[in-house]
Design goal:
DNA_brk_join_enz, three-stranded antiparallel β-sheet, extended, 22 helices, DNA recombination, alpha+beta, four-stranded antiparallel β-sheet, disordered N terminus, Integrase-like_cat_sf, about 475 residues
């Protein structure tokens, strides 16, 4: 078993070496190392040489310390919960095995469970690292593409962001990519290319030979430029600890060795300030959310989006598509079919309800309607039941029998291809209204049945007009069916 000195070390570097020896992911090394650093800082402030005498009240104080910054402002529940998790695992590992730890850890389980639940809710309902403005990603991409770099660092930063805006690749993967053969044809689509690395260590999920498609020519040109730059400058290989190998890096600099996060974000903030959006802080992961969402919308195929993202399962992909930007993109893709006159009906109110709610993820029916995977005929064949009106579809499992309420119901939708049936139904309703007027001595629209018929006529007429028919055309079609 590893010694305490190997795990906690005398400084941060020894912590990292230990975690690397245990083959931990780089992501975990950084997160766990940061959490333990905070713990030992708190321990030093309490003038404790070890954790063997910590009691319940001490852990409560630790919780409070971990949850706030130096100014006393509280961190998010997700941030606090993640740090406490790493500290708890540290105690679970060492209790009873070394004198540094207490034999029994009186951990505040109830408080910890509450923080954990709040963190889960925050993760589920939040946007994560997604952009909050649907227009900002491409606005920035255009500004970066038109920018003239002032030095070699900005040259690489510009290329980095053009690639990030063109491929759903992770930031760390890209910064550590090798120059040689970093772009190869995709396995199942040889005419397309993706970013490639033989080094599993540079990928967060350690996908060996993972490939991320490049879906924009700007990104393709940026990679080709960097490869030519590397060749022209005849860079020599340098050691990469993540990859556990030596190779020529795509983002090689004279000093420091390769481009780093501070440089790319400083460049991003500079461009954002230049175009009047200095309040927006860029994250490379925001483009990843953006591109994965649009791959899902354009293809209508979540499996393709999952493969492009490099996710092992659908669960993580769904977390990406839950972001506010992704959710609105999916919903507006659905609304577009209304705007284009392909469908009509009060079902659109279900979409408006989903748009108005900040917590609601679009249900499978709305996502299917918004995608391009199903044609409208396939969608209407798959979802819901024939409406009792004889035209349109009731998009709930188990249609009601109330024809009079059908056209005003937010479960009702109708396709443009059903226009002929709609005219037939409109003619039948018109005839019913005419017969009611003729058969009544004191006809009035205040009569419940007459008012209901009038409402049905008006609503169905509006839907037909939505499909592009004029009042004159509607009148001709109805009369031809009444004769």
């Amino acid at each position: 078993m590893q010694t305490l000195e190997e795990i906690i070390g005398l400084n941060e570097r020894s912590d990292v070496r230990c975690l690397k020896r245990s083959n931990s992911l780089d992501y975990y090394i950084r997160k766990a190392g940061s959490a333990l650093h905070k713990f030992f800082k708190w321990l030093d402030q309490h003038v404790e040489s070890d954790a063997s005498s910590l009691e319940y009240e001490d852990f409560l104080d630790l919780f409070d310390y971990i949850s706030k910054n130096n100014d006393g402002e509280e961190f998010s529940a997700k941030y606090t919960g993640n740090n406490l998790l790493h500290i708890k695992l540290f105690f679970d590992w060492g209790k009873g095995s070394h004198t540094f730890f207490p034999t029994y850890v009186d951990w505040p389980s109830d408080l910890y469970s509450g923080i954990h639940r709040e963190a889960q809710e925050e993760t589920y309902s939040g946007d994560g690292l997604a952009f909050d403005d649907p227009n900002f990603p491409m606005l920035m991409k255009e500004a970066i593409e038109n920018y003239h770099p002032e030095d070699d660092v900005e040259v690489l930063c510009r290329a980095f962001w053009l690639i990030i805006a063109s491929s759903p690749v992770r930031k760390t993967y890209l910064l550590n990519l090798q120059a040689e053969e970093c772009m190869l044809p995709l396995p199942n689509a040889p005419s397309a290319v993706g970013l490639y690395s033989p080094y599993s260590g540079i990928e967060k999920a350690k996908h060996r030979n993972g490939q991320f498609p490049i879906i924009d020519f700007a990104g393709l040109r940026a990679v080709e430029f960097l490869q030519k730059r590397s060749s022209d400058k005849a860079f020599r290989p340098i050691r990469n600890e993540r990859a556990d190998a030596s190779y020529v890096h795509l983002f090689k600099l004279e000093y420091p060795c390769i481009l780093n996060e501070r440089q790319i974000y400083r460049f991003f903030d500079k461009i954002a300030e230049f175009i009047g959006h200095g309040d927006k802080k860029g994250k490379a992961h925001g483009y990843r959310h953006y591109l994965i969402t649009h791959i899902a919308i354009e293809t209508g195929n979540s499996e393709l989006a999952r493969l492009a993202a490099g996710h092992e399962n659908q669960t993580m992909l769904n977390r990406y598509l839950r972001s506010n930007l992704s959710r609105q993109a999916l919903l507006f893709a659905t609304i577009k079919k209304y705007q284009d006159g392909e469908i009509a009906g009060r079902f659109i109110w279900r979409i408006f309800e989903a748009l108005a709610s900040e917590q609601t993820e679009p249900d499978e029916l709305i996502k299917a309607l918004g995608s391009e995977e199903l044609s409208l005929d396939e969608f209407f064949a798959k979802f819901g039941l024939p409406a009792p009106t004889g035209v349109g579809r009731c998009l709930i499992q188990g249609a009601c029998l109330f024809e009079a309420k059908c056209f005003s119901c937010h479960h009702f939708a109708i396709r443009k291809s059903e226009a002929a049936q709609a005219f037939h139904t409109l003619a039948r309703l018109t005839k019913d209204m005419w017969n009611m007027m003729r058969g009544s001595r004191d006809f009035t629209t205040k009569n419940a049945k007459a008012a209901g018929l009038a409402t049905q006529l008006a609503l169905l007429g509006d839907m037909i007009r939505h499909f592009g028919y004029s009042d004159e055309q509607i009148q001709i079609e109805v009369i031809s069916r009444l004769v």
